[in-house]
Amino acid sequence: MDSAIKTGSKTLENNVTSSEYVLEIEHLKKSFDDKQVLKDINLKLKKGENLVVLGKSGHGKSVLIKCIVGLLTPDEGTLKVFNKEITNLNEDELTELRRRIGFLFQNSALYDSMSVRENLEFPLQRQDEPLSEEELTPLIEEVLEAVGLLDAIDKMPSDLSGGMRKRIGLARTLILKPEIMLYDEPTTGLDPITSNEISLLILDIQKKYNTSSIIITHDMACAKVTNDRIMVLKEGEYIAEGSYEELENSEDEFVRSFFNSTN
Prior knowledge:
Layout: H1 3-14, E1 21-32, E2 35-46, E3 50-55, H2 61-68, E4 76-81, E5 84-85, H3 91-98, E6 101-104, H4 116-125, H5 133-146, H6 162-174, E7 180-184, H7 192-209, E8 212-216, H8 220-226, E9 229-234, E10 237-242, H9 244-248, H10 253-260
Parallel strand pairs: 3-8, 3-9, 6-7, 7-8
Antiparallel strand pairs: 1-2, 1-4, 4-5, 9-10
Helix pairs in contact: 4-6, 5-6, 7-8
């Protein structure tokens, strides 16, 4: 990892106790047949922090997220979420853990046959104790207001723009009050103005709900707005971390290539 940038990261770790991390990964490896996708992943996410992950397609970003939520099992290394080793959890414990983690998919993953209200009711009704209509309505209205779309409550997904669908997807995730948010290319396919609105919304969510977030993106404008820290993934390994300004001026050509594309 870039030594100058690594020093900056080390300062953060020295000032943070283990209990202040919601996610701790050490020497994580994952292969599929003879292809090693994650070679040696080391990552820590602090409570309330927005961590942006940069990396080319096929370099392991999605595989890492699936490991974090227990959909894939690492071959080696440790992966602790809320100080619990993922590989030691049974299915019930994994289910409980996943309720504390929100995931915003690239395509928002809304159910087209359901209204906005019904899309937001769906995750709540899957809980052990389903809520009544009187209990559901204020929860739905709260998250819709948080994403600025309270007036869309009775619309169908087909009536919404791409940016609005992203917001509704985010509202559906927030309704379970997650402590960790995983954003997978949150601004993909959006125009620059709408992309900036989504980036600012990610910041608002961080402040209002005190979420800890991993933001996977190729959108450098999004990275610049949302990050507290940035890590760069190359062929299954993190090769640099630091602030936007530090990485923009990195001596590593691969790291600089992300930032050069914005010039």
